[in-house]
């Protein structure tokens, strides 16, 4: 068993109902090939850096799972067939997987998500008691969560340093970019 | 003959010269991850090209990881192949 990570971009126009059967399909497939889904991570709708199939936005989903190469091949074959999947990418995370470690990790993840849900529910209750607009805000919070965690965690730690380096860098960087671009023109 | 303006004296050394340090070596808590375009955008130009090591000062090991991560991020549309990265 190997551990893989697949990122799939799904057509954002499908909506929640359109996506659910696709996810079911993928999960079934993983079970069929004796794989194990570690994490199903929905990033939600994001702006794409470039258009894919003329769509400027996409619904990102990250699948973290264990399985064999046959599973990956089959999954990618289906992604290619279905038009709802705009793009996908599979990355090998680990060549050997310890099944016990995975089980504990899954349990951990589940506990975390449960906690997050409880917190969200609590926050929702408080907000509801305070103002009427609370439900709307709630709807946006869960989808943003995975990303905000990543982004909130790191910039904070490196900010002072990045400022320091940026102060000196711009001069050097600009001249060299000019160089690069002029190279290109010639 | 056209008059050629005298060229500026070539600067010996930059006045504000400072040794560049690899950011990832200095701070081991930074992880190079293709899923984090906000972090990677510091290492691409406005046109989306990867900034070379001689300019950013990244060490060889980390530059290799960086290029890999940037290329992965490009292939799933987190970073542009060409053009500016516009937030999220």
Count the helices of chain B. How many?
A: 4
Cα-to-Cα separation, first versus last residue of chain B: 55 Å
Estimated share of beta-strand residues of chain B: under 5%
- Quaternary organisation of the protein chains: heterodimer
CATH homology superfamily name of the largest domain in chain A: Ribosomal protein S6/Translation elongation factor EF1B
Provide the succession of SSEs of chain A. EHEEHEHH
Question: Can you put this structure into words, describing what you see?
Answer:
The complex is a heterodimer of chains A (186) and B (88). With 186 residues, chain A is of the alpha+beta class. Chain A is 62% helix and 26% strand. Chain A has a four-stranded antiparallel beta sheet. In chain A, a hairpin with a 2-residue loop joins β2 and β3 (55-67). By secondary structure, chain B is mainly α. Chain B has helices at 23-26, 37-40, 53-56, 60-75. The model of chain B has no long low-confidence stretch (mean pLDDT 84). Chain B is built from four helices and no strands. Chains A and B meet through β2, β4 and α4 of A and α2 and α4 of B.
Secondary-structure map with pairings?
The complex is a heterodimer of chains A (186) and B (88).
Chain A (H helix, E strand, L loop, with lengths): L1 E9 L4 H18 L3 E17 L2 E13 L1 H13 L3 E10 L4 H32 L3 H52 L1
Antiparallel strand pairs in A: 1-3, 1-4, 2-3
Helix pairs in contact in A: 3-4
Chain B lengths: L22 H4 L10 H4 L12 H4 L3 H16 L13
